[in-house]
Design brief:
The complex is a heterodimer of chains A (258) and B (326).
Chain A: H1 3-25, H2 37-48, H3 51-84, H4 86-100, H5 108-115, H6 119-143, H7 147-155, H8 160-198, H9 203-212, H10 216-244, H11 246-250, H12 253-257
Helix pairs in contact in A: 2-10, 3-4, 3-6, 3-8, 3-9, 5-6, 6-8, 8-9, 8-10, 9-10
Chain B: H1 5-23, E1 37-43, H2 50-57, H3 60-63, E2 66-72, H4 76-85, E3 90-94, H5 95-103, E4 108-113, E5 124-128, E6 142-145, H6 151-162, E7 171-174, H7 180-185, E8 191-194, H8 198-203, E9 208-213, E10 225-230, H9 233-236, H10 238-257, H11 259-269, H12 276-282, H13 294-307, H14 316-319
Helix pairs in contact in B: 2-10, 10-11, 11-12
The chains are: A mainly alpha (258), B alpha/beta (326).
C-alpha cells in the first residue's frame, strides 16, 4: 500500500476522533449522551483484554463470511445467467425488484420464529438482504461484455465454456467486485443489527447485554469495534482484489493512480 | 479469471461453515443420568436473575440433582423462539410480553418466578422542576420509558388513572435510561423512568426528583419476570422443574437473608458501568419471592388490556404450570 493514502486516511481518522473528543469535553453534547473518544477507546482497550469480545468477534466474522460466501455462490451464477439470457432477465426482473425492496428488518420475526436466535438465522437473513447488490451488479457486468470481444471469440471458435471463462467472466469481474464490496458491508450491518435485536450470538448480543445493564460506554466501545471490523474486512477485500484483479487495474487509469 | 480463485473461494466457504458449526447451539441435553437432570436456561445477567446466579454459586441446583447451563439471551423474542425451537429448555422474560405471546396461543407456561410487585418497590418516575407534582399531572405531557410494552409503561398509565387523571393523554416515548437525564434537562421529555445505573445520574442532578413509583399502580403480587417453558416440555420434565423451583426458593431465602450476597452479585453485574460500585452498594434491593398470586395475574391483564394492547386474557391456571408450594 502506498504511504500517502495511508497517511491521509490516518489523518482523517485522527481529525474525526479529535472532533468527537472536543464535542464531548466542551459539553456541546453532554458526556452522558456522548462519552469522550478517549474514554470510549480506553473502555474498548479493556474489552479487548477479555476473551468474551474475541469470542463474539469470531462468531460475528463467521456469520459474515458465511453470509457473503452464500451471496457469492447464489448471486454470481444467477446474475451471469440473467445478464446473458434476455428471456431469463425478462422472467426474473420484476421478482428481483420486488424482493430487493422487502426491508430486511421486517423479516426478523419470521426468521426468528422458524430458525431461532441462532447463527444460522443471522446468516440466512444477512444473505437475503445482502444478495441483491451483488446480483444486480453481476447482471450489469454480464451485460457489459464487448460485442467485439464476443465476435472475436466466435471467429476463433472458442466455444461456449471457453468464451465464458476467457471473455464473459473477466468482463463481469469488476462489477462483481464492486457488488461484493457493498454486499460485505451490508452483511456486517445486518449481522450485528440482528444479533442486537434478537440476542443471537455475536457482538450485537454483547451490545444488548450492555444495554440491559445500562452500560452506555460499552455500547459506544463495541460500536467502534464493529467499525474496526468493517475496516479490516474492507482492507482484506481490497488486498484480495489487488491480487485477483491486478490485470484490470493495470489496464485502467486506476492502476496508474494507485 | 485466475484458476486459483475458485479453490480459494471453496476453502473460504468451508472455513466459514466449520466455524459456524462450532458456533451453533448444542443439541438437547436434558436426559437424566443417575438422577441428575440438565436444564438449559436462556437468561440475562440483570438484578432480576440474581436468585438464579445465587442458586448456581451456592450449589442449590446441585443439591437438587440439577445441572443448569445458562446462555445469554437479552431479547424476549429471541428467548421465546429459542425455547419454542428447543435451543433452551427454560427462558427468562418479563411478564407482559409473555402474556402477549400466550394470548396469541404460544404454547408456553410459567415454570418459576422469583419476584412480584410489592409495596415500596424502587421503580422511579422522575421529573425535573416543580411543575408536575402528582401522577395525574402527567396528562398532556411526555414520559420516557424503556419499552412501550413493559410494566413501566402500563404502571404509569394505571398510576395516572388511580390518581384521577386521564391516562390516554399521557404520551409515552421509548428512550434508553442513560439519555433520560439529558432529555429532562433539555425539556424534550417531562418525566422519565429510572431503574438501573441511570438512577445515580438522576439523583446527582439538581432539580431532578422522584415523582412516584410506577409499581404503585400495578396490582400487588403481579409477576415481574418469570421463567417459562413449552407446554410439551413441562409434563415430560415435571420432576426436574419441581426441583428447579425448590432450588430457586432456597436461593430466594438465602438472598433475602444475606443482602451482602445480593450486593456482591449486583457489583458483578455493574462492574463495568461508570459508578457501578456505588450503585451496587446503594441500590435498594429487590425483595425476592417465589409466591405466586393468580388473582394478581388476572388484575394485571385487565390493566394490560386497557393500556398495554394485550390481545387476549390468559387464565391464571394456564399462565402458571404449578401452584404455590409445588
Amino acid at each position: 500500500m502506498k504511504p500517502r493514502p495511508v497517511l491521509l486516511g490516518t489523518a482523517g481518522l485522527l481529525t474525526f476522533l479529535a472532533a468527537w473528543e472536543l464535542i464531548s469535553r466542551l459539553g456541546i453534547v453532554r458526556q452522558t449522551s456522548l462519552p469522550p473518544a478517549s474514554t470510549t477507546l480506553a473502555r474498548l482497550a479493556v474489552e479487548l483484554g477479555r476473551p468474551e469480545l474475541w469470542t463474539r468477534t469470531l462468531e460475528t466474522l463467521a456469520q459474515i463470511v458465511a453470509g457473503t460466501g452464500l451471496c457469492l455462490v447464489i448471486a454470481v451464477p444467477l446474475g451471469l445467467l440473467i445478464g446473458r439470457l434476455p428471456a431469463v432477465d425478462a422472467y426474473s426482473r420484476t421478482s428481483i425488484d420486488f424482493l430487493r425492496a422487502v426491508p430486511g428488518l421486517a423479516l426478523v420475526p419470521l426468521f426468528v420464529m422458524f430458525i431461532g436466535a441462532r447463527p444460522e438465522m443471522v446468516v440466512g437473513l444477512a444473505t437475503f438482504v445482502a444478495l441483491w447488490p451483488l446480483l444486480t451488479q453481476t447482471i450489469d457486468g454480464a451485460r457489459s461484455v464487448e460485442p467485439l470481444a464476443l465476435e472475436m471469440a466466435r471467429s476463433f471458435r472458442l466455444g461456449g465454456p471457453r468464451t465464458f471463462a476467457r471473455i464473459v467472466l473477466p468482463s463481469a469481474a469488476p462489477y462483481i467486485v464492486t457488488g461484493l464490496r457493498i454486499t460485505l458491508n451490508v452483511t456486517l450491518l445486518v449481522a450485528i443489527g440482528t444479533q442486537l435485536l434478537v440476542g443471537a450470538p455475536g457482538i450485537g448480543q454483547q451490545m444488548a447485554q450492555a444495554n440491559a445493564n445500562g452500560d452506555g460506554l460499552a455500547i459506544f466501545a463495541l460500536s467502534i469495534w464493529a467499525g474496526v471490523i468493517g475496516v479490516a474486512l474492507n482492507l482484506a477485500l481490497r488486498w484480495a482484489e489487488d491480487r485477483v484483479m491486478a490485470w484490470h487495474k493495470a489496464s485502467t487509469a486506476q492502476g496508474g493512480a494507485a | 479469471m485466475k484458476t486459483r480463485t475458485v479453490p480459494a473461494l471453496a476453502m473460504l466457504a468451508s472455513v466459514a461453515v466449520a466455524v459456524l458449526t462450532g458456533c451453533g447451539a448444542s443439541p438437547a441435553t436434558t436426559d437424566s443420568v443417575g438422577g441428575t437432570a440438565t436444564l438449559r436456561v436462556a437468561s440475562i445477567d440483570i438484578d432480576a436473575t440474581i436468585p438464579l446466579t445465587i442458586a448456581q454459586d451456592q450449589g442449590f441446583f446441585k443439591k437438587q440433582g440439577l445441572t443448569v447451563d445458562t446462555t445469554v439471551s437479552p431479547a424476549f423474542d429471541g428467548t421465546l423462539a429459542g425455547v419454542m425451537n428447543g435451543q433452551a429448555d427454560i427462558g427468562f422474560g418479563a411478564a407482559p410480553p409473555l402474556l402477549n405471546a400466550m394470548a396469541k396461543k404460544a404454547p408456553v407456561q410459567v415454570v418459576a418466578q422469583t419476584a412480584s410487585v410489592v409495596e415500596n418497590m424502587t421503580a422511579n418516575v422522575d421529573v425535573y422542576g416543580d411543575a408536575i407534582t402528582r401522577p395525574r399531572d402527567l396528562a398532556g405531557h411526555t414520559v420516557a420509558v424503556t419499552s412501550l410494552n413493559d410494566l413501566g409503561a402500563v404502571g404509569i398509565r394505571l398510576a395516572v388513572a388511580k390518581d384521577g387523571g386521564d391516562p390516554s393523554k399521557v404520551k409515552l416515548v421509548e428512550l434508553p435510561e442513560a439519555q433520560g437525564v439529558d432529555a429532562l434537562l433539555q425539556g424534550r421529555i417531562d418525566a422519565s423512568v429510572f431503574r438501573g445505573p441511570a438512577q445515580l445520574a438522576a439523583r446527582a442532578t439538581k432539580g431532578v426528583h422522584v415523582l412516584f413509583q410506577y409499581t404503585d399502580g400495578l396490582p400487588a403480587g403481579s409477576p415481574l419476570d418469570v421463567y417459562f417453558a413449552t407446554s410439551t416440555f413441562i409434563p415430560a420434565h415435571a420432576d426436574a422443574l419441581k426441583r428447579f423451583r425448590a432450588a430457586l426458593a432456597e436461593a430466594v431465602t438465602y438472598v433475602n437473608d444475606h443482602p451482602a450476597a445480593a450486593r456482591t452479585a449486583l457489583a458483578a453485574i455493574y462492574k463495568d458501568v461508570d459508578g457501578g460500585d456505588k450503585l451496587a452498594a446503594t441500590l435498594p434491593l429487590t425483595h425476592y419471592s417465589t409466591a405466586i398470586n393468580p388473582d394478581a395475574v388476572m388484575a394485571l391483564q385487565d390493566g394490560l388490556t386497557k393500556y398495554g394492547h394485550l390481545a387476549g386474557i390468559t387464565p391464571a391456571e394456564r399462565f402458571y404450570s404449578y401452584s404455590n408450594g409445588k
